[in-house]
Amino acid sequence: MLGLPKATQINKQLPKKEIYALFKVESDDRKLFDEQISRLSIVAEISPRTTSIPQGESVSAIYVVSVSLKTPDCDKKNLILLSKLIDQRMVFVLEYEDRARLAVFRAGKLFQTEPKPTGELNIKLSGLDLGGVWERIIAQIGEIEVSEDRTLDEQIAADDERAKLLKKIERLERQARNEKQPRRKLELAGEVKRLRKELETNYMKSSPF
Fold this sequence. Notes:
209 residues, alpha+beta, 2 domains, 7-stranded mixed sheet, 43% helix
């Protein structure tokens, strides 16, 4: 599965009732979970035991969790709940009928791929240790290009700020187009120019991961 080495493949069911009981999941959370998710299972373990990759400073294993869905989309609240309850590095395979997408959490954000036929999904394992592998998996799924002078988390934060700046520029440009007063129009144009300079200086991507 996912082009991973055969030695990583396992099949360990995660019964929902046991998860609810073990972690004392609230009834509202259980309701949403049951509405969208039919079955959970761990389908791969990426670790020194199953690969030749040594563990990292804070990452000893990465688990691939198959999430069989009842609906095409999975509310991120369900995945946030799983990530909080199970303290492991997890890649989710969200499967609905014959299509699936990969999802992962990092820095409080959910990153997902576009849905594809299940057989076309893959994960590339690259890095000196499992810490590096884990960060590169996140970068793959989130399509994150990490600049040489930033860590992954710094890049995620920078990308968020860049997106906010772009939205603000678009809003101001729209205001400028609709503005009738020449003086105010000029002020808006000046603010757009300043923000574009800030965007170019601080948030242009220079080098991929």
